[in-house]
Fold this sequence. Notes:
This protein is of the alpha/beta class. It has 24 helices and 21 strands. The chain has an eight-stranded mixed β-sheet with strand order 3-4-2-1-5-6-7-8. Strands 17-16-15-18-19-21-20 form a seven-stranded mixed β-sheet, sandwiched between helices.
Amino acid sequence: MELKQSQSWLEQIKADLEHSQSQLHQTQQVLEDSQSQFSQNTSLLSSPQKILFYYTGLTNSSQHFAGSSSAVVTLATELAKTDLFSIHITGDYIRDNETYKGVLFLPLPDSENRSRFLSIYDVIIFATHLQAFSQTVKTPNQVWALHLHCWDIGSVELNRVNDFDRVLCLSELHRQHIIQQGVLSKKVSVLSNIIDTKKFTKQPVERKKHSLMFAGAIVEHKCVHILLEAFSNVLQVFPDAQLDIYGSATMWHEGDTYERAMRTKSLEIGNVYFYGSVPKTEMPLVYSQHSIVCVPSQLESFGLVAVEAQACGCIPVVHNSGGVSATLLEGKTGFLYSPNTAEELANTIIRVLTKIESGESMGENAVSFVTNTFDTEKTVNSALELIQSLINSKTSLAHTNNTKMTEPSFNVNDIKHLLIDSIRASTVKHRVYALISKLTTDQWLNLDLQKYSAKQENISNWFDSVSFLNWYAHSFKPRNYLEVGVRRGRSIAQVLVESPDAEVYGFDMWISDYADAPNPGPEFVMEELGKLNIKKLPTLIMGDSHETLPLFFADTNKPQEFDLINIDGDHSYDGAKLDLEIAFAHLAPGGALLFDDIRHNGCPELGPLWNEFKAKFPDYIFIEDYSGTGTGIGFKPPFTKIATFLLSQDKSIYASKSQVSFSEKRLMELKQSQSWLEQIKADLEHSQSQLQRFRTDTVIN
């Protein structure tokens, strides 16, 4: 009987053992699959996407970069600094592989290999022309962008405009011109050239009072012949004037026939010196030694030289063609002239030299203008935002199971905290203080000046409507801005100083002595903005916003969506509700809406009203600051713009948050599989122990 019971027990243990072994095999397979899947997806997520820049005129770094080549290389190297992408460059004159400032330069492949070469990249940015790739077929899910460094779009590029996910222009003026040439407005964006204002600064050298200079390729298009003829006229008024010419025909890969003719002509005039091409690193010193830089080109889409010169305190005199007017403040930081004749150029140069003789200094204005308008960080952030949004609109990344990757998902609470920390930064307060200290004071501005003083200990513990507008305009450069409740123009000033190309509309009734302080009206607002050297003034609309806003949006020629909206008008419940309903309806995707005074003691109904709209738009991100009278902000999805900005500020934050929805889930599954395996192993060892003990007992018996 005992033997039969033992045999029965043995059979049961064997069955349990076989079941456990089967479970172990299955679990090991699941674990291996999970580990493989996790490893593959982690590699996919961490692998940087590849971006290729192509410009026909690019060379290796052994030759000096200038003009469009310099602009392309600068943008590429700045993006490489972020470590977010793998950046490559190719061009018709690149002969050798080389790594330059984190960017890999590659020779242009043979024509039969170009399609395969291009297909490995996620994003291709063509500078001005398709040229060598004009016959290349675009790969599905690939991003193509055309960054125009010429004033006009070429016929080849216009014929293939549907292949471009975005056409990039150098200014809003340039953008409007390209739209007139037949490119859909929704496809055209602005991405300015980068000016490194840390390198292009005034150098500690003597600036010669009557010194002129030219910098660029010495080719007929640049009209050096007009400059030389004009200079001969200048010498009649300022006989000690000197003209220094930097550059050569080789910068455009052209013959030197024209250059040799100009050198010969200069000998007849006198006081003209040719220096050839100089490294870009030496140009800040060159600009700082001269009073005037002349740009007599037949046509310029931007005029990089004019901006670099202003950054170093050198005043540009520029032929008014193409998009050059966007690069200076006429009569304040530089001078435009037209027509492009020697007589007109000479007259302008003489006028500027006379101003300099009289002691009028425009150099500081020029430096300030460039620093505020062409900030490197702004442009790089704009480029990052643009590239990421284009990538997210494609299916360029896929998991091994062919599922599409979507826009990185952030935990809403995390993104709120990160946004609030960024907006509250002391650097924002310092920018605001520097700006408002130039404006006409009243009792409210005096309080603001005290609040924004850098000496205040808790300056990073709050934000308000003014600091938010400054932060947003500085970080994202909105295309347009709508404000209800302009009053003295201090909020509009924040946007236009930080985003000077923005199209701005302000609505107000300009009630006299509003809020117990003088409220002079729109003329006063324009005067205040003039103190800040704002070039593109806003459109101010006087009247009741409940009437003027519907009329405004009824006009389809007016913008129908705004990147940034500020509602600070009627403070009654019904009036504010009407303004907010219109504002939310016309907020652009990815845009931000500001609502002020959500905890104002005199308007207690505004807080509950704000909460009503928060409940009405649950897909938005809302943040508030309850210091002072309270400020509420709503961000409309998608949140690519915000995500990209946070990424540029702290890549580690982005990586940990954006991948949580996939990576942490897979890691949890992996850990569960491991835990299950350990339990089965323990059960198996226990069963094996029981079996061994039973066998021992059986032998003994």
